[in-house]
Design goal:
two-stranded antiparallel ribbon; Alpha-Beta Plaits; 6 helices; 2 domains; alpha+beta; nine-stranded mixed sheet; 32% strand; 11 strands; 22% helix
Length: 259
């Protein structure tokens, strides 16, 4: 027969994770490619936490009643959008070589969620570097079934407007974002059709879009083109974020947040 604790006495259970101090912070740039662009933010978070355990990366844990791994996420792309420039920051309880962490983590993640690089965290936080009007994203939008001339005409109509407001549903309710104000630069081009049975070229829109609250997304830009010029999309577009980071006002380019 086992002894039970006296009534009214609180028995402290050991913490599920040792509460060790943070000794190093690493920033990870990763890509969402191919079919893995359809993973949600929560899907990626679960995949990353599993990969960190498999790669034996010593992530520090928060304190309190419900401890969790100390991982910071910033400005992730929406579900269904590909990206070459997503970022997370890891707080480690033991020092590790960034290149070794990059290799081990990339091997542990599924193909399509690919680690681009890992660097020592320095300077402002990821939130400061990637959010707000001082930051921007560079986008590539492929529009199968749309002629480049049609896209160029629709874009001219949008740029001629002082403002182009499109509706957006956020966690705090329904709002509007100004697509015209967020567009810093745009270019129209064409690429060979990739799909079977597609004979026409695929229109391409390259755009640098300034971040805001909320930030203008690729679907907002397309909604603005539809509202202003009636642009029709016979095939779902493919959007890829090529870069995000501080916006350089002098050059009109997006700077590397890990530089």
């Amino acid at each position: 027969m086992t002894d039970s604790p006296p009534r009214g006495r609180v028995v402290n259970s050991p913490a599920p994770h040792p509460q060790r101090p943070v000794v190093q912070r690493l920033r990870v740039q990763y890509a969402k490619r191919g079919r893995l662009r359809f993973t949600s933010v929560r899907d990626f978070q679960r995949a990353l936490e599993r990969a960190l355990r498999r790669a034996e990366v010593p992530v520090a844990w928060s304190q309190g009643f419900s401890p969790h791994p100390r991982i910071s996420y910033a400005n992730a792309v929406p579900t269904g959008v590909a990206s070459e420039a997503e970022y997370v920051e890891l707080a480690l309880a033991e020092r590790r070589d960034p290149e070794q962490v990059a290799a081990a983590l990339d091997a542990a993640l599924p193909d399509g969620l690919d680690v681009v690089r890992v660097v020592q965290a320095e300077g402002p936080s990821l939130g400061e570097l990637l959010t707000g009007p001082q930051a921007a994203s560079s986008w590539l939008l492929q529009l199968p079934g749309v002629a480049p001339e049609t896209l160029a005409a629709a874009l001219d109509a949008l740029l001629a407007q002082p403002a182009v407001l499109v509706p957006r549903v956020t966690k705090s309710g329904r709002t509007q974002v100004d697509v015209r104000a967020a567009l810093v630069s745009v270019q129209v081009g064409a690429s060979p059709a990739n799909g079977p049975g597609e004979d026409d070229a695929c229109a391409i829109l390259r755009a640098v879009v300034r971040h805001g609250t909320p930030s203008v997304r690729p679907d907002d830009v397309l909604a603005g083109l539809t509202a202003v010029a009636g642009l029709a999309l016979p095939v779902p577009p493919v959007a890829t974020r090529l870069a995000q980071g501080p916006f350089d006002e002098k050059t009109g380019s997006v700077a590397d947040p890990l530089a």
